[in-house]
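Reviewers of the previous submission asked for a worked example of the structure-prediction workflow described in the proposal, so we include one complete record here. The input consisted solely of the amino acid sequence. No template or homolog information was supplied to the procedure at any stage.
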Amino acid sequence: MTPHGWTGTAAVLADRIAAFIDASLADEPTEDFGALALDVHAWQRQNDPILAKLAGVPSSWRDIPAVSVELFKHVRVGTIGRGLESVEFLTSGTTGGGRGAHFMRSTWLYDKAAVGWARKQLPEAPSDVVALLEDPILASESSLSHMVDLFKTWTTPAGEASWHVYLGRLNHQRLNERIKSADRPLFVATTAFALAEWLEAEPARLPSGSYLMVTGGLKGRSHSFEGDTLYALARERLGPLTLVTEYGMTELSSQLWGTPDQPYAPPPWLRVLAVDPHTGSARPAGSRGQLRFLDLANLDGTLVIDTLDEGTVHEDGRVTLHGRLAGSPARGCSLSIEESWDR
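From that input alone, the workflow returned the following structure tokens.
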């Protein structure tokens, strides 16, 4: 038994996944990705009634059946039944829609994946975190806040974290005071909508060497920014900084990192396909399609997830995000800020 809640076959799989994550970060994976994915799927199929209803036994990781993110809003997806102790992350919902839930026995694999890949992609990032997000102590259901809170511990000695959104409202004064008091570089984490609001309200300039992480969609009901415009405004008003972009979903346990002028890079334990939204068949590299993710760190959830996002998966596996599929509702972490403007 691992010290993190898994037993039996699940414990063995958790250890294999953890070893794969650690080794692949050093570019020396311990085993074949596809074989591990099929073993995880076989265990999930035995322990998730929803997954068991999907037809077919796959012979390749590319054939593992996908679960739509929309299903998470209506049924309990994953291997953790009701009444079992678990961590629960909730989506921010959709405009006019409900909230999906991702259950896991432990955040051990999530934490290992999140910190490992972020540190690999951002080796020089500071560990003093300033978040335009809800405090994870008060918003324990937020996977984004949970992830960002991890970043204060990715160097030694550990940094500090401060949180500047409460009940969907950004506290401009406290945020600017924190930045003005800083005597070393900061890692500022924000959704696109929170950043847009802050930039419109005379933000304090960041210390030299700071990083700005932006996540979430850029278009909404209340404000609409083209990406280049928002990023240019951030550089103009916040001062010289390293600007990075992050893509993640509550239903996943891994994230992709990019920059405004470069596609998102997935970690080695996360594979991305662009599929035909009508047939589900994979499209060739370089073609646009509905994004499908296979995340080995999703041990307690479901391995393969169909999003409502459209993107291009390039030959090297990196992903260019084009936005929501036509007709899909607005969704994601930026809604908590945007919807507060509508009250």
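The first strand starts at residue 67 and ends at 68. We consider this example representative of the routine output the project will generate in years two and three.
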